[in-house]
Design brief:
By secondary structure, this protein is mainly beta. It has one domain: Immunoglobulin-like (Sandwich), CATH 2.60.40. The strands form two sheets. Strands 1, 2, 3, 6, 7 and 8 form a six-stranded mixed sheet that branches. Strand 4 and strand 5 form a beta hairpin.
Length: 145
Amino acid sequence: MKTKVTKQGDDEARNDLVSLEEIDSEEFGRHIHDEEGQLTLDVYQTDTHLVVIAPVAGVEPDEIDITVSEKEVLTIRGTRQVAKEVMEDNYLCRECFWGAFSRSIVLPEGLDVDEVAATFKRGILKIEIPKLKKEKTKKVEIKKN
């Protein structure tokens, strides 16, 4: 699923979710595989950063790949390995996803994508992307001759 991240104050589009089927995946330079699981995300902004939080329990940090494309699409990919093989008939309930997962979000304008930072603590991945500093408008006085 692609998520459109919007600017603060854009209430109409704030929760606008776009499914992968609605987006031409070729546009983002990769093919979407049906067998790939989805990663849940929280995305919020502070005064200085856009922050992405993703719970990735059971995955080591070196098993996660984070990229930002030229089209400013942030993609998180990884694989959650099965700890123990269990025969299908032995499951009473099976809700956990095992295998490859990914999630991409279209980033809003005004971010410094060259300064993306990621941390991993207790199974939670945190990605912080600084906002570009806004240029302040300066009033120019006209000198009288």
